[in-house]
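Q: Here's a chain of 729 amino acids. Please give me its 3D structure as tokens.
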Amino acid sequence: MSKLNCIDQKIIDTLEKNYMPYAMSVIVSRAIPEIDGLKPSHRKLLYTMYKMGLLTSGKTKSANVVGQTMKLNPHGDMAIYETLVRLTRGNGALLHPLIDSKGNFGKHYSRDMRFAAPRYTEVKLDKICEEMFRDIDKNTVDFIDNYDGTLKEPTLLPATFPSILVNSNQGIAVGMASNICSFNLQEVCEATIQYIKNEDVDILHYLKAPDLPTGGQLIYNEKDMAEIYGTGRGSFKVRAKYKYDKENSCIEVYEIPYTTTSEAIIDAVVELVKSGRIKEITDVRDETDLDGLKITFDIRKSADPEALMNKLFKLTPLQESFNCNFNILINGTPRVMGVKTILKEWIAFRVVCIKRQTLYDMQKKSDKLHLLLGLKKILLDIDKAISIIRHTEHEEDVVPNLVEGFGIDQAQAEFIAEIKLRNLNKEYIINRVGEVESLRMEIQELKEIYEDEGKVKKIIIKQLGDVSKKYGRPRATEIIHETHVEEITSEHLIEDYNLKLFLTEHNYLKKIPLISLRANPEHKLKEEDYVVQEIETHNKADLLLFSNKQVVYKLKIYEINDCKASSLGEYLNNLLGLEPDEKIIYLAATDDYKGYMLFGFENGKVAKIELDSYATKTNRKKLANSYSDLSRLIYIDYLKEDIELVAFSSINKVLIFNTANINPKSARDSQGVQVLTSKKGSTMTRIKKLEEVAFVDLDYYRTKNIPATGCYLKKEDETEGPVQLALDI
């Protein structure tokens, strides 16, 4: 096998010779729009249609336009046609389409709805293109050779309004990109007028927010919008519009975000339904027809349509962000600019256009004046002019003889020589010469405009007002303030239902929905294991799990997997990462962290700790020092309101006390207050709820003040066997 000859080349040289020319070509000649709002491919296409007379005449086949455009754009016919499609009224990608169309051009909001072939569709320039091409034949912009030097094409179009902001534009170049959203034409024109009058104007006051062709609702955040307007970068959110048909129990979506498609939305919703994350929807249909976009969701009669749509906004492309990157070519250099800077550059461009047009008109009128001044000279002796022409033997001598006879230049003589014989009368010549003064006045006015930029800007203001009045339309995208939009968090998407939690002696936790528990109530437990606590709560509550190491673990109940009574449940050592000799001794579920945790200790003290002491802003999963470790814990309970409890001592004394007499503490590891006074070295052995005892005379043991030693258990009450709390501490 022969080896290929390898030539060493520095990477920098490779980049300069191969990469940089390509990158510059893509940036300057293909992907990034210019100040007239167009990329080169758009401009070549529109100018071709302008030269074909499609601004004033009827429609022609798209294939004809594509073929003619290839004289300026050497890309393939399909690339040109796809460019044409996006500019059409039928496709709906632009707020103000530049091409009037007939036939199927697909839809911007549809991924699968393809456009028809160019031989079937017909196009012409839309009426608004009059403003894109206004005075283009009056030297308003530069012209350059096309790719083979056979034709001329404009470098820019002299648009009389800031079309760069009126129509969306997206481009991906090499090492950079551009993504410009569209704004309402009337708002853009008014904002530009106000900016011309005062550069310090608050643009946000006139240019409310972007306005997208597909409508929807823009969620307005003033800070984000100010950043976009100021820097040209940032993002805003747009959500779909819908209506609820109560009679047929369905939701109809009729406007969607500009950056998505109806198929993407339907696919996302179907996937959610299949995975079981959305249970309210029974059917999804695309009912788009000639009247426009419509996506229909059939929903259960029990479903809340607003809550459902909030879920869908969070989980599907029914709400999406538009990422702005106002990168525009200015004199061949890409620049990311804010709205004011874009308007400043556009105004500077229009000033140059109008000055060039004014200079062109001045030259044309000056040339005409010059010819009429020559005509004025022959007014004195028309017969002499006729005689010179009649007595000249050779045609080529007519002009020189007139120059010599009347003292005029060749251009004037040519003009006189071309006058028809029937017009060589006094009346005609006097009428023509009468235009001299008006021409002089017009030239003087044009000169004043050319020399005074203030007058040029007044012309721009007038043109903007005319465009706004003629082509302006109401906003397509509704603005809603973010304060009126419910913030959708992950918790909104969690299904809520009633359930029971079971804690076992061997540290297993079962989370069983009540529906499942009713169907199969028989518990499966390990040998010698048993349930030590059960609580009824719901899926969106917080769960506090107290361990024998003075630690409380915090979980969202929906983070725990559902199980059936026939399963063992979650092993808490694995779920919480407990130490080898650590176990969970108590569960408490809460929504609002109201109420108290009550801790009874062997030394006779009881601590009443406010539950909100366990609430944390950082959602910590583990809190140390959850209760005091100065004495052995013999009782723990979660109280929503004060109750009476029964305390037992090691010397068979009993005390009934009310928790209202215990002042609550905020420090989690507080020892609390003395409730049962020690006598002869006695300790408090257990605490029971009042309903768990069956004493004959409760008042005998009851006390109004604490601490107290209590009373000895009466003989008739000795049969009361205290229930041992399952605290293996």
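Q: Can you summarize the key feature?
A: The chain has four domains: 32-159, 241-317, 344-471, 492-717.
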